[in-house]
Write a structure and sequence with these properties.
By secondary structure, the chain is of the alpha/beta class. The protein has helices at 11-20, 36-48, 59-69, 100-108, 122-127, 136-147, 154-163, 168-176, and strands at 3-8, 25-28, 49-53, 75-77, 111-112. Strand 1, helix 1 and strand 2 (25-28) form a beta-alpha-beta unit.
Length: 178
């Protein structure tokens, strides 16, 4: 069995994760200014360990995730909604602000990321109104919420569907109850 390593953005995120899972190892990215050395460490860790990306549900978190995914490593994704990761004063978003229960649930419900997988095409999104339509954002939000993944624009949404190995049938099930 592989060891688990959680990738978080900052020290306070690590403290919060370790308050729920005291024995789990974390790698800290130090925010969106992730160094090449840290990227290499994360990639090397993914070769022999189960590496879970658990980044803040905001733009910098998405940016960090994409940089890490570009290494081509083998990763899982844990996600917590923005509404569950907001500070008490409603000014900051981050894993460190989430409840222990929400962190536990996010880390228990990870999804494996499949690189270079193109089951879903842009035309599939277009056909279902997930891009280039007035209500496309709402439809993508519905799917993102159901799959517990970050909301994204059409291009990034397509990328997420493919790296998570989501099939068109699953999208139809969420949208139409098929």
């Amino acid at each position: 069995m592989k060891n688990q390593i959680i990738v978080v953005e900052g020290y306070h995120d690590q403290i919060k994760v370790n308050s729920v899972f005291p024995d789990i190892n974390c790698i800290i990215t130090n925010g969106s200014e992730i160094s090449d050395e840290t990227l290499n460490l994360i990639y090397q860790a993914s070769l022999n360990n189960e590496v879970i990306l658990f980044l803040d549900p905001d733009y910098p978190g998405k940016k960090i995730m994409n940089v890490i995914l570009d290494t081509g490593g083998n990763f899982k994704l844990a996600y917590i909604g923005k509404d569950k990761a907001i500070s008490k004063n409603k000014k900051k978003v981050g894993i460190e602000h989430a409840s222990k229960k929400d962190i536990y649930q996010a880390l228990e419900n990870t999804v494996h990321i499949h690189q270079n997988n193109n089951h879903i095409q842009f035309r599939d999104l277009l056909k279902r109104g997930l891009v280039s339509q007035e209500n496309s954002n709402e439809l993508r939000k519905k799917i993102a919420k159901e799959l517990n993944i970050p909301f994204a624009n059409g291009k990034t949404f397509l990328k997420y569907m493919n790296i998570l190995n989501i099939k068109v049938e699953r999208i139809d099930e969420i949208l139409y109850g098929a």
